[in-house]
């Protein structure tokens, strides 16, 4: 098939750290343009201050990857879909669930491929974990996602704004993994959300969930972790304990441990190319729906102000 | 077709005020049993303290209507669907969106009809409003839903619990109407939620929404209204103003006003009977999704404690 002419919209940390190298390493794509209001572009690639400018004066493109903060993603995604372009959405796929539903309708209307890209699902340990769990009785699951927001999200004020999700911005990665590796859907039972007195998004959360067979799943999220960081999922089964750590990269099973090379974003772009070739979309709102359910039903406590 | 043998689960205010009379007036249904842990039943109808007791010792039934508070509805609905029974869910259809998604899967697995019953959509003015608006340019929409919680929800403590939705319990009726009468989907833009210091659910809310063409929609919800009550939707169009008041019962169009007989629950049960006859489900999460999006993205302020 023809090479996909791709524009990357939003040139922040995730675009430069992950998207651009993955695109450069995939023969199915050529980086045809970049868009960002306040960044320089990439040497040798046409750069535009807005998507409208790209549409008006830029090269022809087939697809866009949206790497902006979630609050501004919807209008960009819809403009792209309405022009028949294929769209990859960084996670979370929208600031609201309604936005994602509207994008699905727009993609169906234009015949474009829409991909809600949950990058953590492509971590090396995830598919082996899923395969191992499929044949076992699962007794309980514990998720611990504790990181230092000052290290991982320095100056990212959008994360604290309404729709920025706070500690669920990394936490939704864990939810994207467990909704992939566990064989049954998850239901939120209870949530305790800790909001800094000066912020509109939570800095920590404790979630109690169950799968549809009643298996208990607990989740401990905290942005205030200093020292050792934790991105771990522990699943107790009738055949012993599975531990997925380092955000899904390292898988430990009874009697064995494996740590394959990190291929998250390369695998994600390969899947996007396959979706476009097949004329299909891949949309899953389950991780964002669990977060929305936690906000909908959760209890809220106020904690110390957070100053970046 | 054969008469549908129906059990009503949860005999609170809404069941006695609305469901039982509607069922009694529809030849397609026979009230075969009632279930409630702490109420007397209905004269001449077998009554059970739990759904399990009904399954163990009760008469054969074809369908259930779930009129309990939303927080306990999921397990009951799934138990009924897993036995192949058809299920009508009072609004809201679940305490979380994940619950509704899981019920859809359970209904598909068992071949049962699942009906998320948004009763306000059957108010007399709703379908004429929808037909009138379909042919017009809509400029703006204003929703005012202000009622005295002490009058309409006396002692209903569940409404203040997590998952009880607070002022969105009536407000979701307005959302169920506007998502029916407006021609395009709605997206939440902003929300301000007022929480009493001693409660886990909002007592008032201001929502800013847009439809997918950018039409502004504002919503003003308040549980603290004394004196005149308001359940009004005002739609300004290129052909003048449409006003739907009294919760959808009264429709005023330029030069005319109509107030047809209240047929909400009778119409709702007629639709349920038709779904069962056709082997279909009717599931729409849009109103609950908008509420979840408001909690997800909304800003929150603390207001005076509420004492019932």
From TrEMBL, chains A, B:
Gene3D superfamilies: Dihydrodipicolinate Reductase, domain 2 (3.30.360.10), NAD(P)-binding Rossmann-like Domain (3.40.50.720). GO terms for molecular function: nucleotide binding. Residues 4-114 form the Gfo/Idh/MocA-like oxidoreductase N-terminal domain. InterPro entries: Gfo/Idh/MocA-like_OxRdtase_N, Gfo/Idh/MocA_oxidrdct_glycsds, NAD(P)-bd_dom_sf. This is Gfo/Idh/MocA family oxidoreductase. It comes from Novosphingobium piscinae.
